Amino acid sequence: MKLNVAIMGATGAVGQEMLRTLEVRQFPCTTLRLLASARSVGKKYPFRGRLLPVELLTPESFAGIDIVLASAGSSVSREFAPHAVAAGAVVVDNTSAFRMDSDKPLVVPEVNPEALEKHNGIIANPNCSTMQMVVALAPIHREAGIRRLVISTFQSVSGTGQKAIEECLKQSRELLAGAKTVEAKVYPHQIAFNVLPHIGSFTKNGYTDEEMKMVNETRKILGDDSIAVTATTVRVPVLRGHSECVNVETRKKITAAEVRELLEGAPGVVVVDDPAQADYPTPVYSEGRDETFVGRIRDDISNPNAVEMWIVSDNLRKGAALNAVQIAEELVRRNLLRPVTV
Q1: 128 an active-site residue?
Q2: Which of 14, 156, 165, 308 is deepest in the core (most CB within 10 A)?
Q3: Residue 218 — pLDDT band, cuts 50, 70, 90?
Q4: Which residue among 29, 119, 128, 168 is the active-site one?
Q5: Which residues form the domain of 328?
């Protein structure tokens, strides 16, 4: 099969990770088109021994393209994804633009690949914090039924983008050099040596939109609107890798030992759980790796029907680029694309 692929938002942190992931996983693309705004046109990036130029993103950019991996921001996706579909492409979108549309599947291939069968040209990639969590939750939900989730996240600055990484590093250097104050542009407060209980915009109910994404997307992916979900999302001065503390209350009692056994056989999950040896996943442990890592699995001493766990994953890999490429692979496997022979 010969496929033509485009990355929309190719110069961003996620776009660059998509580029690397396509190469590492040897995705069967005959041509690859890198699309971005005017300020990036002419830049070149390596792919399979060649340097590919960045092209200007326009409504005409999708002629002959089979798959578009999009990560250029919600407004850009809303504007350009319909043009891609009209040109005959399938769009795998990494933004929040289409996630909660009832006619757009929200897909994690280890959890609900069958949802791809109903796509209408646009498939949504979940929010990074939701995505890594549901990989670990799906086996538990199938086995015991999840009644309620209580979530606290510790999310790296790369989730905001390259400018946030640069700001965190710049602030850290200045503070270590003796500065008393630093300039904050990306975040409302200093992020270096600090934590911010604020990701996204606050909504009328007091939660942020990032927290509400976790509520709504979890239910949609797991296919169960009855699951009660509450979340607090926190930005931490980590460059890459999101961590989550998740309390899982189930309808049928399931022990920590049973959860550990389930997850040891779950696709995309690696259990790292030997507290006596200080063996548990951390963001540094997950960086550059594809799997979702789970540790600190234990029975909740306050609730006989609940377990606690610690979930860590590289937010630019499984939390974004990898999942998008896995969706593309699943589309090919299920023959849900219109291949173009060149």
Answers
A1: yes
A2: 14
A3: very high
A4: 128
A5: 3-127+320-333
